[in-house]
Amino acid sequence: MANTSETPLYQLIEDCEVTHEKLYKFYAAVIIIIFILALPLNASVLHLFIFKLKFWKSNTNNVFLFNLVLADILLLICLPIKAHNFIKGERRSPNDAVCKAMLFMLFLNRGASIAFLTVTSIDRYFNVVHPGRKNLLKVLKKSPYISIVIWVLLLPLTIPTMLKNFDCCNSHKTHKDEPSADALIQDVVDSLREAVFFSQIIIPFVILVYCTVRIVNRLRKKTVGDKTKLKRATFLVMTVMVVFSLCFLPCTLARMILLIARVQEWRPIFQDKATVAFDGLMVLSYMDCLLDPLVYCFCSTKFKGLYLSSYFPFLFKESQMPIDTSSGQPASKPARNTVI
User: Fold this and answer.
1) By the 8 A CB rule, do 105 and 111 touch?
2) Can you give the residue ranges of the G-protein coupled receptors family 1 profile domain (predicted)?
């Protein structure tokens, strides 16, 4: 780790060394807390989807949600390494292979989480707003291979991020000499990579806003009949919006400010503040592995009851125990006869 008291601030930023050791140790502590809370939560959810819900035999929504769990597991694998780097005063691993692997896993998780959250909301939108209309998604979701296709399509969007200058926010470096062909090519590559980064957020966000508005309007216009399905769909898309807005939009805005700071060559102290803010909001984005279970609860009618009955059976009466789809029997024996 560089000596921050002797190394110029601008050089620390370029070398991907932390400039505020105590703050980055706080970031590391937050990452560790997220890891400790999210690991058992996602492990229990994974167990439920595989052994209780038999996701491959049930509706396609469960398949999408299972893939969302896999995306969160990818993120959890990276968190201890990220926390270790921050504690050592490094914004990324000095090992080239580890650095690229970390970037690949982090951004594959990011892309997969956004993709499956968006697909789940679109599916619910068609079910509620256009229940009888045939559409491409309804045709595709009947095939279990649609999830594999989504993962494969994410790969070309993830590979461009596997560069150190992305993790260290060093896109569009200032070239002190006259612009050369290599420098121009690097600027083009940086621009394309940043375009991929922002499009992964902006396009799905617009889709989510549209789905949310249409479903809410549909709920308001329905004056007769059962509104339970519509209310559940509304809660789902609004929950997805909350997860999306909290985890992904802030770091995207910080990334935009950071790029402006670099392109316009702001003073090193302002570039440093933008860099520290971006790293902190990236840590906030890791919260999605804790918030995604909210999506499961509102998306699957069985999930919430089955999860509580499997891991907290004392909350249910025996007559209210959800059915375990793998056995046809109540999920577990209750410990008391009251519902809390």
Assistant:
1) no
2) 41-296
Q: For the segment 238-285, what is each residue's pLDDT rounded down to a tens digit?
A: 888 888 888 899 999 998 998 888 888 788 888 888 889 999 999 999
Residues whose CB falls within 8 Å of the CB of residue 282, separated by 6 or more in sequence, listed in order: 251
How big is the chain, counted in residues? 340
The class that CATH gives domain 9-158+184-301 is mainly alpha
Each domain of the chain, given as residue ranges in start order, spans 9-158+184-301, 302-340
Alpha carbon distance 122, 137 (integer Å)? 8
Structure tokens at 311: 């891991």
pLDDT digits (tens, 9 = 90+) for 92-149: 888 878 888 888 888 888 888 888 888 888 887 887 787 766 656 555 655 667 788 8
Cα 170 to Cα 165: distance, rounded to the nearest angstrom:
5
- The answer to whether the CB of 118 falls within 8 A of the CB of 208 is yes
Q: What are phi and psi of 323, to 5 degrees?
A: -80, 135
Q: How many angstroms separate the Cα of 61 from the Cα of each of 101, 132, 265, 338? A: 30, 18, 47, 31
Orientation angle between helical segments 228-247 and 96-129, nearest 10 degrees: 150
* Contact of 280 with 19, CB cutoff 8 Å: no
Taking residue 198's Cβ as centre, other Cβ atoms within 10 Å add up to: 13
DSSP-based three-state secondary structure for 17:
strand
| The three-state (H, E, C) secondary structure of 47-107, written as one string | HHHHHHCCCCCCCHHHHHHHHHHHHHHHHHHHHHHHHHHHHCCECCCCCHHHHHHHHHHHH
Secondary structure (3-state) at 174:
coil
Helix (H, G, I), strand (E, B) or coil at 323: strand
**pTM score, two decimals?**
0.81
Nearest to 165 by CA among 258, 250, 252: 258
How far is 214 from 4, CA to CA, in rounded Å? 52
